[in-house]
């Protein structure tokens, strides 16, 4: 029974992947709005109902199963001790990226394919107003977690301006990596990691500069 369940889950995962791959190819070649569920089903060689069972809404094909989840970030932030929030965020990003590369390597897949597809997905999201809006809303939980952590580091409320600015900077920067000139030319976690570090360094610099400035109310904002 356990073996049967395992095969069933593997087949389900393979079907989801095939459908998502077919959708990305069609979105890229003929446009997101112009692509129909029937076309995706035909490309993936499955029934139309199979597509909607796995992905009830069309935009789920671009948003479901993202590995960089708020739940995993929250767990990583909860586990930190002396490290800053930005250090923990960097470790979470790097660890998740390494896990994705290792997963593809173990399965015999080319890890470069994953990052190329994420870059393709990012370009599709940026090109469509509705998709861009959903992406922005989907990143809000990450922003709130990072803002709360930075606020705790600085002795400020999570909804204070400085933690919110830093959190938005980090999440926006990480999202933008895939659509930058640098990000589009890199195809491995090890190559993309430098760009993650650049985003975090930019946020740290902003926190340092703001912390060194006098508070207009007569006090100084404490650094990390």
UniProtKB/TrEMBL annotation:
Residue intervals of the HTH tetR-type domain: 13-73
Key words of the record: DNA-binding, Transcription, Transcription regulation
SUPFAM superfamilies: Homeodomain-like
Keyword DNA-binding: yes
DNA-binding interval(s): 36-55
Pfam families, alphabetized: TetR_N (PF00440)
Protein name: TetR family transcriptional regulator
InterPro entries: DNA-bd_HTH_TetR-type_CS, Homeodomain-like_sf, HTH-type_TetR-like_transc_reg, HTH_TetR
A molecular function GO annotation: DNA-binding transcription factor activity
